[in-house]
Amino acid sequence: MLKIGSIQLDVPFIQAALSGYSDLPMRRIARRYGAPFAFNEVMLDKLVNQKGRKRREILDVADDDHPLGGQLMGANPDDFAEAAGAMAQAGYDSIDINFGCPVKKVLGRCRGGYMLSQPSVALDIIRRVYDAVGATHPVMVKMRRGTDDTAESERNFFTILDGAFEIGVTAVTVHGRTVRQRYVGPSDWSFLRKVKRHVADRIIIGSGDLFSAQACMRMISETGVDGVTVARGGIGNPWIFRDCRALWSGNELPLPPSIEQQGQAITEHFRIAVEYYGDGLAAKIMRKFGIKYSEHHPCARQVRDAFIAVKRAGDFKAVLDKWYDPTADWPPVVRRKGHGDLIAAGAAG
After folding, report:
1. CB hemisphere CA count around 143 (13 angstroms)
2. Is 101 known to be catalytic?
3. Do 168 and 190 belong to one domain?
4. Which of 154, 190, 301, 334 has the most CB atoms at less than 10 Å from its CB?
5. CATH number, domain at 230?
6. For residue 8, what is the enclosing H or E element?
7. Residue 232 falls within a domain, yes or no?
8. Are residues 47 and 71 in the same domain?
């Protein structure tokens, strides 16, 4: 089991915070297929602190959405502390500080991965958040392995890492790419191994190139990290948590989801989205999920194009009726080859 402060998980596989994706419907589906812990989308601290509809949405925590992590991003230590306090009071079970986002406009506003170049500011933020909520909620930090591949960048990384644990942070998630890499090139799993050896028994969560249960298991075994967060590999693929649970228990990898099982998952995801957003908005939001779900279908290209063309709820239902009819004569479903498996195998070796 993985224990993160007061949060006890029966398996060490976590649904990561994903901007634009890990909303309540996605989290509910991930949990139903085995995710024991899920994060909301990364939230800008100022949005949490600013009165209005967005704040109310962020602070509306559903009874069945636990344990729930709230990830914050920003630039001002005071704003971080205020937002962390509001989220903790609203019912989030842990607070995560994002020092990893590599998006250009985020970096330009001195947020996310930019903080890895500013150790003193980063540690001030961590200290303020910990002082605000650390007595009652586990505080976590998300980092990349540095801004770039320079020695100075690595020194800054370890300064923040060591300082975070000294302040009282419960766990640190480390992504094996630099900020400059963004999402290009392999995630350096050897760096995760180095970090875990450095911190000994403190909790390190690994991230990067986890597109299958096999990759998740291999990251844990080859780097020694205490758990993993599944990010892009979980979009349109809640079965990754089912598969992780099977392998973790010593069982064989389950068969890839059948057309009927795919249709059931997507239908349920869409139903929850409609309940949460309403018909019109749900159809627009679910289109991007449908595109990712289509990768499991034996007619992936045609199904992807069908989801792209969705404009309203009726269109989405029509795609499900046509392409996920369990009585139709479909080609066999073959497990999709996650490019992360190939990248990770090379990186970890």
Report:
1. 33
2. yes
3. yes
4. 154
5. 3.20.20.70
6. strand 7-9
7. yes
8. yes
44 — phi, psi (to 5°)?
Answer: -75, 130
Q: pTM of the prediction?
A: 0.93
The CATH number assigned to the domain holding 308 equals: 1.10.1200
Of how many residues is the chain composed?
349
If asked whether residues 244 and 266 sit together in one domain, one would say no
CB 174 within 8 A of CB 195: yes
What pLDDT tens digit does each residue of the chain (349 aa) get?
899 999 999 999 999 999 999 999 999 999 999 999 999 999 999 999 999 999 999 999 999 999 999 999 999 999 999 999 999 999 999 999 999 888 889 988 889 999 999 999 999 999 999 999 999 999 999 999 999 999 999 999 999 999 999 999 999 999 999 999 988 888 999 999 999 999 999 999 999 999 999 999 999 999 999 999 999 999 999 999 999 999 999 999 999 999 999 999 999 999 999 999 999 999 999 999 999 999 999 999 999 999 999 999 999 999 999 999 999 999 999 987 654 444 333 333 2
